[in-house]
Amino acid sequence: MPPQAQHGASEWLAVVKAAERDGEFFRAYDVARQGLLEHPDDLPLRHRAVLALARSGATEQAQALYRELGLEGRPETDIPELEARLLKDVALSAPDGPSRVELLLAAAEKYEAVYRRSGHYYPGINVANLLLLAGQPERSATIAHRIAAELTAMPTAAGEELFWAAATLVEAHVIGGDMAAARRALPAARAASEGDYARLSTAARSIHNACLAKNLPVDWLQAISPPAVIHYAGHIIGAPGGAGRFPAAAESGVAARISELLTARNVGFGYGSLAAGADILFAEALLARGAQLHVLLPFRLDDFIRESVRPAGQQWIKRFEACLANAKSVRYATEDEYLGDDTLYVYCSRLGMGLSVLASQHLFAPIEQIVVWDGMPAVGNAGTAVDVDIWRETGGSQTIIPITPENGAQDSESPSRAASNSRRSARAMLFGDLRGFSRLTDRELPIYVTRVLGAIEQVRQAHSNKVLLANTWGDGLFLVFQRANDAAECALELQAALSRLDFAALGLSVPLSLRIGGHLGPVYETLDPVLGHTNFFGAHVTRAAHIEPVTPPGCVYVTETFAAALALEHSQAFACDYVGMTKAAKGYGSLRMFLLRARRRASEQGSRYAIAV
Fold first, then answer.
1. Is residue 609 within 8 Å of 219, Cβ to Cβ?
2. Average confidence (pLDDT) over 98-127
C-alpha cells in the first residue's frame, strides 16, 4: 500500500520501486505522482515518475512529463541518462528510413555525452546498441569490446549493480559478435536479477534488439526475460457424483497438468476469472508457485458465487475466497447484476485476454493462453469454446488441456445455466465535446452547423457501416460501435478532420477543439420511445460520458477496458499511452486513462515470444 499522508519522499520512492520490481509500471507511475503531491521538489521521485511512464510504453507522455517536472538541463546523476533513454524510445518507435537513423544517432549522442562524463558502462552499452541499430556495426563493436573488457576486469559488484554489469556483459558480447561468450554470461545475469521484472524487461528488450540487428536468434533470451504471462480459462467442474463437461473425478489429473505446464512455461503472471473448476485450479497453481494472480469477475460478487462457484459444491466457495484474498488484483468487468446476460462472461474473458496482452507488451514477456477444454462447442454464446476461438483469432500461442469424452457427459457449460441468454451487449462508445462552442454567436451558429458538424458528418458517413448510433446536441457528440477498433479509427479521424479546419477562414471568431472519451462496456440496445429509434442505455454509457470532460482538447482518452480490447485484436494499428489514474467528471471516481493514438510502424519486433503449443 502507498504510504499515508506526510510520509517521507524515501518511503514513497520505496513503494514506487516495489511496484516496478513487480512489473506494475502503471501503479509505479500513479504512486510516484501521489508522492510528488507531498514532495513536489523531490528529484528521485520526479525521475522515477518519468521512468515508470516510459517503461509503460507512453514515450510521448513521458517526454512531456520530463519537461513538466523541470528535469530538462538538470546535471544530476540519472537525469541526462533519462533524457537519452526517452530519445532512444522515440527512435525505436519510428518507422524505418533516414529519419529513424537520425533519431538513433541523436539518442546515441546523448548517451555518449553521459558516457564520457561518467565513464560508466551502462550509457556506453546504449551507445553501442544505438550505433548498431543505426547501421554502424564497426564503431558499435569497438565500444562493445571495450566495455566487455572493462566489465571482465571489474571487481564483483553487489545488488542492482551486479545485475546491470552482468546483463551489460551479455549485450556487449552480442554486439561484439561473440555469441558463445554471451550465452556463457547469461546465467549470471539471470541469477543477479533478484526477480526484478523491470530490470529483466529492460535488459531483455535491449539485447533482443541487438540480436535482430545482427540477424541472430532470440529464443535463447527467454532465460533473461521476465516470466511468462498467461490467460487461463476452462470449464466449470461438476458437483461430486454429478455429470458435466468437467467431472469431479478428473480434477486431480487436470490440476497436475496445470502445475506441470506452469512450471514448464515459467509462468509468473496469470489473468482469468475464478469459477469453480479450471479457473480456481489455475489460480491455486499460480499462487503456489509465487506467481501474480490477476482476477477478473464478470459481475458483482454475490451473483458470481451463486452462478459459477456454489453449484460445484460448498468446498469450492472456500477455495474461491482463499484465491480472491491472495490475488494481486481483482477487477470487475461490470459491478452490476448478472441478470441472466451470458455475454457478460464473454466481455469479462475478452477483458482478461486484453489485459494479459498489455502486461506482456510492457514486460517484454512471453504470452500464451492455456485452457481446460473438452473440445466440444459452447452451449449458447458464451463458454470455454468461445474463449478458445477468440484467442485463436489473434494468432496467439495456445495450449489445450483436454478432458477426454469418457470422463464426463456433454452437459451444459455450467451446472447452473441450462440455456444461454443475453440482453446486454458489449459496445464501444465515444462521447465528444467541442470546446469553444459556448462562445459562438447566433450569427456564427449556421456556419458551425454546416461546416463543423458537416465535417463530423463526413467522417460518420465514411464509417456508416460500423456506426450503430450517432447523435449530437449543440456541442455534444455520441457515437456507438460494435468493436473498439472501429471506434478508435473513427475517433482519430474525427480529430484529424477538425484539425484541418481553418476556423477564422470559415468566419468563426473562436477556434474550436474536439475532445473525445472512449469506453467499451455492456449496454442495453433498445427502442427509445421518445426519439423513436434504437438507443443505448446503461451504467457503462454513463461511465463513457464522464471521460470526455476530463480529456484535453484535441485528444482521445479511453478507459483500460477499451485499451485492453485494442491490445487483444489490433495492437499493430493503435497504441494506448497511459496517462494515470484520472478523476472522472462530476465525482464519478478515478479511472485508469489512456491516450489513444495511431501506432507508428517500427522496426522493433513485437513483445511476445512464441511458446510452442
1. yes
2. 95
Give the whole-angstrom CA distance, residue 570 versus residue 165. 37
C-alpha–C-alpha distance, residues 273 and 349, integer Å: 8
Contact 268, 228 (CB under 8 A): yes
Q: How far apart are the C-alpha atoms of 400 and 355, rounded to whole Å?
A: 20
Q: What predicted TM-score, i.e. pTM, was given to this entire model? A: 0.91
Helix (DSSP H) and strand (DSSP E) numbers for the chain: 23, 14
Decide: helix, strand or coil at residue 338.
Answer: coil
Q: Is the pLDDT of residue 315 over 90?
A: yes
Q: What is the CA radius of gyration of the chain?
A: 26
Bridge partners, 330 (sequence order): 295
Rounded (10°) angle between helices 251-265 and 278-288: 50
Query: What pLDDT does residue 361 have?
Result: 92
Cβ-contact 399, 382 below 8 angstroms? no
What would the grid cell of residue 141 be?
563493436
In sequence order, the 6+-apart residues with CB closer than 8 A to the CB of 290 are none
Question: Going by C-beta distance under 8 Å and a sequence separation of 6 or more, which residues neighbour residue 37?
Answer: none
pLDDT value at residue 1: 56
| Beta carbons of 346 and 386 less than 8 angstroms apart | yes
CA dihedral sign, ordered 227, 231, 234, 237: positive
Check: CB of residue 293 under 8 Å from CB of residue 268.
no
